[in-house]
Amino acid sequence: MRRRLRWRRRQMVLAVSACALVFAVATRAQQAPAPANLVPVAASSLLLRPEAYLNQTVSVFGTVEQLLSATAFSMDQDAKKAAMTDLLIVAPTLTAQPAPGSYMTVVGEVIRFDPAEIQKLAKDYTLDLPANTAARYRGQVMVLATSVVDPGMNDLAKPVPVPLTPAEEAFDKVMKQVNPTAAELRSGVTASDVKVVQEQAPVLGKLFAEARAFFADRGTTDAVAWAAEGVALAAAIEKDATDNRWSDARESTTKLTALCQSCHAAHRERQPDGTFRVKK
Ligand code: HEC
Fold first, then answer.
1. Ligand 1: which of 171, 189, 268, 275 to mutate, most ligand atoms within 8 Å of CB?
2. Measured from the CA of 211, which atom of ligand 1 is nearest?
3. Has residue 212 got a pLDDT over 80?
């Protein structure tokens, strides 16, 4: 009877962890496709058969043993089995430390601990393990985590967006205006409506001039050139429309659209929450 109860409890914990995982993966799916072959495994099983999981993306579940640094902790050491080691988890984007003894679901890649390898896989990250701790885990199997989901289903490794600078904020507003202005200009050109073109083209030209100044301040040469081309195209479209050269105006409008794409491909970055920002 007791055994049955314990088994039930285990099943419940497993069910909860499965939910947490689906949640984490669903959240992540917005920024990158979830790995198709995510292997679920208990931390203790992974430690028993490390070779079976090496270089795979796994979801490991177990309890937090010890906090090792701001971005690293260990899982599931069994004090009674002296020979058994614990599992090192390094989560480069960890923003809050998990509570020791709490039950976690960690998603990440199983590798052998090697600071050089971690540096290669997580380029913007600096490993912060104390030297003696690093020495203890060297060569052992570990998980380089992208998600650390706690029992409250919070992903403690979800990257926190860096706030926009005032200049970036102002530029974001410019782009939010560029979009409807360019759309109206385009429909004005399509309809050969000179009044709409004369209204919208100067507005777009002014917005691109602001974009040009923004990129000039950052020293982004190619973007300055694209923005300047935008200023010139807006003026050309207005002039061609005024002088009734609609096929020229259409040609410039097509170039304008290509301009948006060139600059976005080079300098626009989609954030995990779906918003955009300027690439660093
Ligand atoms: C010189 C470079 C450049 C050009 C040209 C450019 N953009 Fe952008 N745009 C950016 C960058 C960088 C971002 C990301 C910054 C941001 O959104 O805060 C952006 C963001 C945007 C956004 C997202 C705004 C938001 O945050 O919701 C829209 C929409 C947009 N651009 C439309 C356009 C259109 C339409 C054109 C062409 C008519 C255009 N852009 C031309 C650089 C450019």
1. 268
2. 1
3. yes
